[in-house]
Structure formats: C-alpha cells, structure tokens
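Q: Predict the bound structure with coenzyme A.
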Amino acid sequence: MSYKNIIFRKEGKIAKITLNRPDKLNALSPELIGELEKVIEEVKSDRDVRVLVITGSGKAFSAGADVGAMVEATPLQAKESSLRGHRVFRMLEELDIPVIAAINGYALGGGCELALACDIRIASEKAWLGQPEINLGIIPGWGGCIRLPRMVGVAKAMEIILTGERISAQEALQAGLVNKVVPEDKLEATVNELAEKLASKPPIAVKLAKNVIRKGLECDLEAGIGLENSAFSLCFATKDQKEGMKAFLEKRQPQFKGE
Ligand code: COA
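A: Predicted complex:
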C-alpha cells in the first residue's frame, strides 16, 4: 500500500512508520490519522513483523492534531475526530508486538498522545513534550488526560495539562514519561539496537507480557493476578518456553521460533 503522509518501511522483523509532513511539523491531519489506521492494520496482519518503530521526519515527532482542520469543527465533528483518534491509538496499544516511539523532536498534543500509546519512548535530547491544548481552549482529546496520569502520576499530569507548558526531554525522563534520552545523532542507532533486541525475544511471551501489563493497569489487583496467572501458565504450552529453559540449562543461546 502507498501512503502520502507517512513513510512505511520494513527491514527484517522491524517495521518503521515515519510521520511525514515536515513542513507542518507532522501535524496529525485527518488524512494522516486515516493512513496511520491503515498502516497499523497492515502491521497487525503481517506475522513477520516483531517490532514497530514510530518516528517523525524533520524537526518534530508530531506537533499534534492539525489545528487548521479543527478550528471550525462543531461539537459533533470534534467528538467524531476524538473517537477516531482514540480508535487508532487503541489499535496501536493493542498490537501484539512492542511499539517504540523514537521521539526526534516536538511531541505535543496529539503527538505526545501518540507517543503515550506506544510501549517504550526513546527521546532525542532536542525533544520537547507536552499537552498544549489548554492554550487553544480545549483539553487533550486522544487519551492525554487518561494515559498521562497513569504514566507520570496525577500531580505531574495536572501540571503538564493545566499549564500547557512544554517540558524538555530531560524533564520528561525525570517524570517517567520517556524511557531514555540520547544525543540527537544517536537516536536512530539506539532505537534500532533496542528494536533488534526486542525482535530476538520469544514473540508469544512478549505478546502475553505486553497484554498482561496493559490489561493489568485497567483492572483491580485480584483480576490482574488472575490474568497474569493464566498467561504465565499458557507460556508452558509453547516450544519457546522449552527452548528457553533448555538453552539456559545447556549454557547456550536460545533459538526462539515463535511457536
Ligand atoms: N496544526 C497545524 N499546523 C501546525 C501545527 C498543528 N498542530 N503545529 C505546527 N503547525 C504548522 C505551523 O502552522 C507552520 O505552518 P506554516 O509554515 O504554513 O505557517 C509550520 O507547522 C511550522 O510551525 P511553526 O509554528 O512555524 O514552527 P516553530 O518552530 O516556530 O514552532 C511549535 C514550533 C511546535 C512550538 C509550534 O508550531 C506550535 O506551538 N504548534 C502547535 C502545538 C499545539 O498546540 N499542538 C496541539 C494541537 S491540538
């Protein structure tokens, strides 16, 4: 499939989506969100892909929802656009494979919310993150009010969302919003190395762990423990479990096959 607002590449087991409207700082227009939905479907149905990386071209990861496309929206249109973004970001979050956000620059508004829906965030030291919607007379509408407090705690999320001020990559690291900050020229190599590492892990166990972590955040402790218990026991139905444990006992590297 060909796309106009994104670049999609696959190299071995790693797929990469580059948001590609650099002159508009990769603002998430309705067309771009539509392409994101299609490409996530494409990744979902490709069993060879083990890791997805999302990044932006130019100086931004994404400066958020396209303000020009929203300025005259009615409440019903705003509701529709919010629901559409939620659906796409939820699809991303629910992929069976790990998703890494390579935050190369501004990740603001919907751009920050997109990064929040990824599993791991690596930022360039030049990146700035934030939810500036309040300055436009609105609130985050693609999950920021919901995912940000789960990630950085209520106090920090309140500060970020209510002030609308951008925070630096280093501040984001301190807040637990990003996993790692690296020099700009090391971002790609760092992300590739991490992606290769994740792609080498047993995919069924990766999928189960991701699923239990995500679902566990949405339920009470007892239900979470039940989920983990079921998924843990299911691992023992895989060849990769036997291989992983035998390889350890035989002091060799495991050869995982995803079975
Ligand atoms: N929606 C639509 N267009 C956007 C955009 C957005 N969210 N963010 C940036 N752009 C466009 C600008 O309008 C400008 O277009 P133009 O060249 O046709 O005028 C272009 O991208 C470059 O942006 P500019 O503001 O000139 O770059 P800058 O380096 O001076 O500032 C930012 C960068 C990120 C600080 C600034 O663009 C900004 O505040 N963007 C909006 C962030 C935001 O509020 N996001 C939440 C939206 S709900």
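A: The first strand starts at residue 6 and ends at 11.
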